[in-house]
Write a structure and sequence with these properties.
It holds the Pfam family RLL. The protein has 10 helices and 2 strands, in the order ααααααααααββ. It has 217 residues and is mainly alpha-helical. It has 3 domains: 79 residues, no CATH class; 37 residues; 50 residues. A hairpin with a 4-residue loop joins β1 and β2.
Length: 217
Amino acid sequence: DETEFRNFIVWLEDQKIRHYKIEDRGNLRNIHSDDWPKSFEKYMKDVNCPFKIQERQETVDWLLGLAVRLEYGDNADKYKDSTPDGAKNTENTAKNAEPLINLDVNNPDFKAGVMALANLLQIQRHDDYLVMLKERLTQDAIAKASQSKEGLPVALEKHILGFDTGDAVINEAAQILRLLHIEELRELQTKINEAIVAVQAIIADPKTDHRLGKVGR
């Protein structure tokens, strides 16, 4: 519902995000104005949201993630010692040392991060963000990634990424993915060259059949 959506955005800004001063929130609070979409688009730019105004689900997830981070920042002492109910025994506490073990795939930050990374790396979008991940984690892809390869060390700082995500860790991951992509392209080019050479070898050594009055195999 459009009205509920606008009220939701206003509530997030008023109660959690608070990016604007109170006196500057008038245009955003005027949810019945015909200019509200323009005010919302400006708001997205001001909070550095990476999504477009048409991408509402992704925008909602991203803004919720921002609100959660700010809520935690305001109440760090309250939340820092909190643990999930299932992680209170010794075994689960040890597992918490591995961040991916208790990864919540329904977390708004995780969803928004996947979508943002897909945008940056120009991966084909899908309504279900988990499907995008599965497409990148096929059995063939996993098997190929598991093969050990020896090569020369690469200094990432010498390679220009071409864009900045605002996060050093994500920047480095994007650089690695781009280099891997270049390697795959080079392998493909090598196979194409081999195919061309094979075809040229056939063309350069034809068999002549005088009975048919033609040259060829």
